[in-house]
């Protein structure tokens, strides 16, 4: 019997409302426990900034962070599958947008569809970026799956990065600079450009000439200093095979023939929206109120001028037992039970004005008057702290957003690229712009000093470690810097079980493809070397 009143993939995306529902399902992946657990385990726990409370045991996380895992480790499988789940949902939105029927020809209707499509492209790029930096080249799934051709071989790392770049560049011209008020939390042009700068940096090699470094300097000048950038510049449109009007149609810009006399016709020479005044290193909320340095990481700092993109969590708070929203208790679990600042990180931040903001010892009193109750001898990472005023009514609930992209990282990538391009004076200026804001915490004036390429690069990397600490990215940062083996082998000397000593240079910079993926494809999806 034929089902009545049911939607499937072929008839769901007929309206803008349905397309938005599909996009909500893509964002939903970012809120899941599985996604976020994989983020901190791979990006943070595998690095040298934190130590866990169970690293010497034989559980699957311990095997992973000690680089003694096998190809069937559950967390490796989960990292792979949860990001492909997000890609699948994003692909449904992107392919489904072709079927949307507009009720009117008003330009606002086109804008709604285009902004949904642009956000889906950003999210797909984010999921693929998670995969390529974790596993290297991975299969690029078609936007419309064919049940007779579900086995897709791996693309090269370079092909995956090119795919990510194209999504981010197109999304950047499709989206407004920043979503605010009730729409805060959606990815705008700023999020696309920030992630694009990061993606470019992951493809470049420190100390080696690369067009990627040059591209980061252009994007940094646009984002930070207000330099003009056109749609054609952003897209590298000269490399496209389709015509401009074909591209406009695919990206849901209104057809030129349908435009009213007062409606714009975008061209490759159209200038990108300004980002320079949307974000800042100083923290202010949406009303212009000045916030403290630490507020970025708490509820009052959500969507502030230092935050570019965050995973949104809302406390459901209806008082029911075990009332869990997705993303539940992640920060509390990490803060009290999982990870604590390492000795090497404490040594790095010693004397820095951010020390009391980013880490505190057992028994010390936090800024809200609450005693820090991490285990004795442990040092708490305060970016995961939930202040007493923000404690959810149900212990299993959560209202604390996770910061994914922050403005200071954009500035530091700009500084790093300028140094790579030989513009050391300007690089130092950008680096110290971050440090000056941090110095205001304790009213000190110590800044980084001019020097050689290596000396400036090392200072930038030091600042990255401190400013961006505990945001679940440290492992991947030292890998892309080409020094993971050195850092982790040095780190092994400070832990009783020598965590990091088993890291194999040339192998463990990426993780193995999950063994079940190799098996079910009969080897079409090949394994990484060394595994």
From TrEMBL:
Where on the tree of life does the source sit, at the highest rank? Bacteria
**Pfam families, A to Z:** SusD-like_3, SusD_RagB
- Specify the signal sequence span: none
Q: List the record's Gene Ontology CC terms alphabetically.
A: cell outer membrane
Q: Is Signal one of the keywords?
A: yes
Which InterPro entries does its entry note? SusD-like_N (IPR033985), SusD_RagB_dom (IPR012944), TPR-like_helical_dom_sf (IPR011990)
Where is it localised? Cell outer membrane
| Keyword vocabulary terms for this entry | Cell outer membrane, Membrane, Signal
Query: RagB/SusD domain: from which residue to which, for each copy?
Result: 390-531
Q: Which residues form the SusD-like N-terminal domain?
A: 23-181
Q: Which residues form a coiled coil?
A: none
Protein name, UniProt field: RagB/SusD family nutrient uptake outer membrane protein
Which organism is this entry from? Barnesiella viscericola
């Amino acid at each position: 019997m034929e089902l009545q009143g049911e939607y499937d993939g072929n008839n769901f995306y007929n309206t803008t409302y349905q397309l938005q529902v599909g996009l909500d399902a893509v964002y939903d992946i970012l809120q899941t426990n599985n996604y976020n657990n994989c983020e901190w385990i791979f990006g943070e726990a595998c690095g040298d900034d934190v130590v866990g409370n169970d690293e010497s045991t034989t559980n699957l996380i311990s095997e992973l962070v000690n680089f003694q895992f096998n190809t069937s480790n559950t967390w490796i499988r989960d990292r792979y599958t949860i990001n492909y789940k997000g890609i699948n949902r994003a692909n449904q939105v992107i392919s489904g947008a072709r079927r949307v029927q507009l009720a009117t020809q008003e330009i606002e209707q086109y804008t709604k569809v285009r902004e949904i499509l642009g956000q889906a492209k950003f999210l797909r790029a984010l999921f693929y970026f998670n995969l390529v930096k974790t596993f290297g080249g991975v299969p690029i799934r078609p936007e419309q799956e064919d049940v007779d051709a579900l086995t897709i071989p791996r693309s090269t790392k370079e092909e995956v990065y090119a795919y990510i770049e194209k999504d981010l560049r197109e999304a950047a011209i499709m989206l407004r600079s920043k979503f605010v008020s009730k729409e805060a939390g959606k990815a705008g042009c700023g999020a696309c450009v920030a992630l694009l700068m990061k993606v470019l940096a992951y493809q470049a090699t420190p100390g080696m000439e690369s067009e990627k470094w040059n591209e980061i300097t252009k994007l940094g000048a646009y984002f930070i200093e207000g330099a003009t950038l056109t749609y054609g510049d952003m897209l590298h449109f000269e490399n496209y095979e389709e015509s401009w009007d074909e591209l406009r149609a695919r990206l849901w810009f209104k057809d030129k023939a349908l435009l009213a006399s007062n409606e714009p016709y975008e061209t490759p020479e159209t200038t990108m929206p300004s980002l320079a005044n949307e974000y800042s290193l100083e923290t202010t909320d949406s009303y212009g109120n000045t916030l403290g340095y630490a507020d970025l990481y708490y509820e009052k700092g959500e969507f502030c001028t230092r935050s570019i993109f965050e995973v949104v969590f809302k406390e459901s708070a209806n008082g029911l037992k075990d009332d869990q929203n997705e993303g539940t208790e992640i920060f509390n679990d990490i803060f009290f039970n999982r990870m604590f600042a390492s000795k090497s990180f404490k040594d790095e931040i010693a004397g820095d004005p951010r020390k009391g903001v980013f880490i505190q010892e057992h028994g010390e009193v936090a800024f809200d008057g609450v005693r820090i109750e991490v285990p004795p001898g442990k040092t708490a990472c305060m970016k995961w702290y939930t202040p007493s005023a923000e404690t959810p009514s149900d212990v299993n609930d959560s209202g604390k957003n996770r910061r994914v992209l922050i403005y200071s990282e954009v500035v530091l990538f700009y500084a790093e690229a300028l140094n790579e391009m030989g513009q050391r004076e300007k690089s130092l200026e950008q680096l110290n712009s971050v440090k000056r804001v941090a110095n205001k915490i304790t009213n000190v004036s110590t800044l980084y000093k001019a020097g050689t390429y290596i000396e400036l690069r090392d200072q930038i990397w030091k600042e990255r470690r401190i400013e961006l600490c505990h945001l679940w990215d440290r492992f991947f940062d030292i890998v892309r810097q080409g020094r993971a083996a050195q850092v982790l082998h040095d780190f092994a000397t400070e832990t009783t079980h020598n965590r990091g000593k088993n890291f194999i240079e040339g192998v463990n910079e990426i993780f193995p493809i999950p063994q079940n993926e190799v098996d079910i494809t009969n080897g079409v999806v090949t394994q990484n070397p060394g595994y």
